[in-house]
Amino acid sequence: MKQFILVIMSVLLFAACNNPKPEENKETTADTSLSKPQPAEFADAKYMQIGKSGLDHLAAGNVDAWMESFADNAVYQWNTGDSLAGKKAIMDYWKDRRANVIDSLSFSNVIWLPVKVNQPQSTEAPGTWLLGWYRVDAKYKTGKRMTQWMHMAQHFDANDKVDRIIHYMDKASVMEATKK
Known about the structure:
Elements: H1 2-17, H2 26-35, E1 40-42, H3 46-60, H4 63-67, E2 70-78, E3 83-85, H5 87-101, E4 102-117, E5 127-140, E6 145-156, E7 162-168, H6 171-178
Parallel strand pairs: 2-7
Antiparallel strand pairs: 1-4, 2-3, 4-5, 5-6, 6-7
């Protein structure tokens, strides 16, 4: 008798745990997902071209052409906490670097990821970001060379101008290569 009751309870337990869920209305599900944006999504590929052109101009030493994609109030920040505020300050810095510090500069193995942040998860600003990873090979006026992988995050304003760059790099490698 105990075995019979145990079998009946097992069957009931199995049936209770295995209840099928009612089917969702597919139209409602589709409409809901379209009306509520995801926290982040892929952005337009045009931002990859802006990033590529920027690196090409910087490598060629054409800082003026690179700066055309910047907003007047742009901020250029390094992972070390150093930063430059304003398009003119960024332009002056990079013109000096390309004329007096860096002899040649090249970028390779570039990967771009344009992302639209709809709902910030942390401290990032909403809007379009272009994330870039690449290898940098630089020859300095000191005659020394530096190679390292870098990462850059660029934020675009409503006019598709870069208003913030966060540049992640190993500054020690650069400092060593620029020592006389």
